[in-house]
């Protein structure tokens, strides 16, 4: 089924756990699935388009001089898949940093800045991080 492997699901993660240790071992796969689901929902918003891929140094040559900790959705997805992102709180913090980076680089009122404000609003109003 398309998307199953991309979401981090495997046959063992789809079967109910038979013991407490097995349930504890499966928790990382479950959090990966949850975090990737949150990122998928973010991608589906109308204001996520500037954040889907890294900022290109060819398009924005001074970006990495201004922004020292860049974030984008593709990077966050990779961090989740590699097991480097371990909680909803950490994901929320990185999404907030992504928006803050955009606001720091761009001018208030421009399209990119506005999308960052919309992401901040989405973070505040979303129940996905509860």
Structural commentary:
57% of the residues lie in helices and 0% in strands. With 130 residues, it is an all-alpha fold. The chain has one domain: Bromodomain-like (Histone Acetyltransferase, Chain A). The radius of gyration is 17 Å and the shape is globular. The chain starts with 10 loop residues before the first helix and ends in a 5-residue tail after the last helix. The mean pLDDT is 88.
Task: Give the arrangement of secondary structure elements.
Blueprint: H1 11-14, H2 20-43, H3 63-66, H4 73-81, H5 88-105, H6 111-125
Helix pairs in contact: 2-4, 5-6
Key words describing this protein structure:
mainly alpha, 130 residues, 0% strand, Histone Acetyltransferase, Chain A
Please tell me what the overall shape is.
Answer: globular
* CATH architectural designation: Up-down Bundle
Q: Kindly state the mean pLDDT as a whole number? A: 88
CATH class reads Mainly Alpha
Q: What's the name of the CATH homologous superfamily?
A: Bromodomain-like
Number of strands: 0
Question: How many discrete domains?
Answer: 1
Question: What's the CATH topology name?
Answer: Histone Acetyltransferase, Chain A
* SSE string, helices as H and strands as E: HHHHHH
Q: Which value, in Å, is the CA radius of gyration?
A: 17 Å
Helical residue percent band? 55-70%
Strand content: under 5%
Low-confidence stretches are: none
Task: Give the termini distance in whole angstroms.
Answer: 29 Å
What structural class results from the helix and strand content?
mainly alpha
Q: How would a crystallographer describe the biggest sheet?
A: none
Number of helices: 6
């Amino acid at each position: 089924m398309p998307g199953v492997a991309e979401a981090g699901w495997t046959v063992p993660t789809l079967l109910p756990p038979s013991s407490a240790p097995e349930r504890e071992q499966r928790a990382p796969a479950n959090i990966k699935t949850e975090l990737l689901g949150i990122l998928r929902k973010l991608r589906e918003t109308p204001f996520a388009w500037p954040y889907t891929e890294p900022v290109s140094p060819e398009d924005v040559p001074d970006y990495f001089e201004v922004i020292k900790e860049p974030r984008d959705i593709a990077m966050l997805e990779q961090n989740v898949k590699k097991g480097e992102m371990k909680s909803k709180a950490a994901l929320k913090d990185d999404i907030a940093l992504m928006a803050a980076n955009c606001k720091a680089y761009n001018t208030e009122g421009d399209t990119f800045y506005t999308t960052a404000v919309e992401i901040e609003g989405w973070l505040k109003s979303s129940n996905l991080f509860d």
